[in-house]
Amino acid sequence: MICLTRLRNWASQKKESQDILISAKANLLAHLKKEDRDLYPVLKKAAETNSSMKQTLEIFARDMEEISKFALQFFDKYSHGGSGIEFARDFGKLFATLTGRIRKEEDILYREYEKISQ
Predict the structure, then answer these.
(1) Total structural domains within the chain
(2) CA 88 centroid distance within chain
(3) What pTM was computed for the model?
(4) What φ, ψ does residue 51 adopt, rounded to 5°?
(5) Cα distance between residue 112 and residue 18, in whole Å
(6) What is the distance between the alpha carbons of residues 79 and 12, in angstroms, rounded to a whole number?
(7) Between the N and C ends of the chain, which has fewer C-beta atoms within 10 Å?
């Protein structure tokens, strides 16, 4: 999220901004890969005997499909620059979506993970 926060000062012609965008994409993908490797297998195992957990994971998976689709479109669209107003609107949506998702994960999934893994 640090890289995304730095993008608030986007200037479509600046190489530094494009580098930050590429870095933000790489960091997001690395984070998702880590969750897929470490978090979700534990939760999926618990969901085998816990219908509530199973339902929660299904909801999170559907939500993540939409978020991932939008995030990848955003990164593809702006990897070579873009207009200020359009970028600001799209970035605001991406930033709000990701921060909301992170908050939900911390409040729900990570708490469940901590209970299970203790």
Answers:
(1) 1
(2) 18
(3) 0.76
(4) -65, -30
(5) 37
(6) 9
(7) C
pLDDT tens column, 51-107 = 999 999 999 999 999 999 999 999 888 877 666 788 888 988 998 999 999 999 999
Would you tell me how many other CB atoms lie within 10 Å of the CB of residue 71?
20
Q: Which residue is it, tokens 């998976």?
A: 61
What domain range includes position 104?
2-6+14-117
Looking at the chain, how many residues does it have?
A: 118
Contact present, 13 and 81 (Cβ < 8 Å): yes
Residue type, 1: M
The answer to whether the CB of 12 falls within 8 A of the CB of 87 is: yes
CA distances from 75 to 19, 37, 69, 83, 97 (A): 12, 23, 10, 14, 14
Q: Are 79 and 117 in contact (CB under 8 A)?
A: no
Q: Which two tokens stand for residue 104?
A: 């939900």
